[in-house]
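Section 5.1 Outputs to date
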Amino acid sequence: GRWDSGDKPDVKFGVQLLDDYGVRKVLSTIAPTMPRNLVVPELTSNLVAAERKDALRKFANSDFRTKAVVLLGEPDGAYKEYIQGLMLAEKQAKAESEKAAAPAKKRGEEPEEKGAKDDKGDAGEGEGQGDAEMKEGEADESKKDEAPAREEKEEEMREEKVELTAEEKALPCRTPAVPEVHERTLSKHFASFSLPSKAEGFDEVAFAWEAEDACAKMLKAWVLD
């Protein structure tokens, strides 16, 4: 969709309460009354101090312990392993799809090849009987020679192992099909991006990948870039 992003998917279920986020508003209202762990993975809102405070205010009079987890900088090994697993699965699915489509693609090419052979056969129709028999024999031998080669190639396709390249393994994250944040949303809010702190009301702020100082420098440099 026009406003589609990973942070705010432009989903259309054809159900009004889902499409206009009515269900989400209801869940947001009752969530503070439910004694269970909750995760709020909203990238843009979590980077804007005013919106973080609004989210915390909903849980102010509850028994919830609020925690902000900052994932910024060089990912840890567990995350890289997870990302590589997703990338490998996508690559395997693509290879399987191409392999499954190969026979149909080949069948679509065969009539044209056959027509070319028929034309060639018609052109030599006036030649002698012995010559025609010789050509038929040569064609049979050619088909016999092609069959093992074709089978060998198909076997290689079946046995080919799909792996990530060194370049793919070196990537800190994967590129999603849709942007994590829409460019218009980003241009509107990026100047207000900041890191969370206990002063905002969090019980704990954890920096999972890199230290707070390093994260603050990276975010500042990114905003100013």
